[in-house]
Amino acid sequence: MHYFYTKHALPGRDAGNRIEVNHVSKLSREEFRENPRSFHCHEDFMELVLCVSGTSLVIIDGKPYTASKGDIIIYNCQSYHQECTDQSSRFSLYCVGIKGVRIPGLPDNCITKQDAPKVLHTGDSYPLFKTLFTRIFDLVRINDQQEAALLEHYVHALLIEVLPLCDPAENYAYRPQSGKGELAEQIFDYLAEHYTEKITLQTVGDALSLSPDYVSHLFKDTYGFSPMQYVNALRVGKAQLQLLETDNKISDIAMDVGFNNIGNFNRAFSLFSGDSPREFRKRHTFD
Q1: 249 CB contacts (<8 Å, ≥6 apart)?
Q2: Domain 180-284, CATH 1.10.10.60 — does that match?
Q3: Which of 17, 41, 141, 233 is most deeply buried (CB count within 10 A of its CB)?
Q4: Which residue, among 269, 234, 229, 267, has the nearest Cα to 88 in the 3D structure?
C-alpha cells in the first residue's frame, strides 16, 4: 500500500525550512514478493524505512547491508538503493518519504554522511519507532487536514528519535557478534571482499576452514538468503552503478563484476532489477 501526501506542508523547526511528507508505504510479506522495490534513487526527498519482519539484503550506493526486524534503513536523497529478497523472504516494512530536511553540513534531505552506516538497529526502542511509523502511515492514509498538526508532531518526533542513531559511536549496521554469528560474519566479509572473483562454496569453505555445506546453511540461517544470492546481489549492485556512471560495454561490465558469461549476468540482473542491463541503462540515464 502506497499513499502520497502533498497537500499540507509541515513547518520545520528552522525559520524558512518546511518539512513535507512525500509519501508513505506499508509492504507486507506477500506484497513485497509480488511487487519488489527495484533499484532507484530519489532526486528531491529522502526515505526512512522500518523493517517489521524478516531479513533482507540491502544495497545502498553499491555497499551491502543486512536489515532485519527492528532496523531502520536510511535512504538519503540521490542515494541509489534496493532491497534484495527472494521468493521465500518474510521481509515487510514501513516507509516514509520526507522532503525539506536540512542538517548543517549535509546536503538537503540527507541525515548521514556518505560513508556512515545506513542500517541502524533500534534495540529496545523498536516499539516506539513502530508506533511512530504506524501513526504517520495512518494519518497520511486518512489525509485529513484537521490532523495536519498531529502529523507534524509525529514526523518531527520520528526525525528526533532517528538522528541520535546516526552517530557511529551510538549505533552500527547490525550483524551477529558472537558464537556462530562471528563465523557468519566472517563469511559475509569474505564474500564482500572477493565477490568479483571466481567464487564457490568450496573456495569460501577452503579459505575459512569450513565445509561448503556448513558455509551455506550457516549463512542462510543467519541472514535469510544464500551466499550465492548475496554474491549475485553485490555483483548486480556494482554493475548497476557502472551502467549509470560509465559508457562501458555491458559485456565488459559483466566480466568486471565477476560473471563468467553474459547469459548468467543477464539472468541475475533481471532477477534483481526487473530489467535487462540494456533496459536498465536506458531507463535510468538521459542524454
Answers
A1: none
A2: yes
A3: 233
A4: 229
CB 55 within 8 Å of CB 81: no
Grid look-up 565477476 returns 258
Banded model confidence at residue 69, pLDDT cuts 50, 70, 90: very high
Three-state DSSP class for residue 159: helix
pLDDT digits (tens, 9 = 90+) for 175-199: 444 456 788 889 988 998 999 999 9
Q: How far is CA 64 from CA 47, 104, 126, 214, in A?
A: 18, 27, 23, 22
Ranges of each domain in the chain = 2-166, 180-284
Judge contact between 7 and 143, C-beta under 8 A: yes
Q: Let me know: does 45 contact 182? Beta carbons within 8 Å.
A: no
> Looking at domain 2-166, which CATH architecture does it have?
Sandwich (2.60)
Instruction: Mark residue 113 as left, alpha or beta (left: phi above 0; alpha: psi -120 to 50; beta: remaining).
Output: beta
Answer yes or no: is pLDDT of 232 > 70: yes
Distance between CA atoms of residues 80 and 241, nearest Å = 8
CB 77 within 8 A of CB 92: no
pLDDT (mean) for 252-274: 90
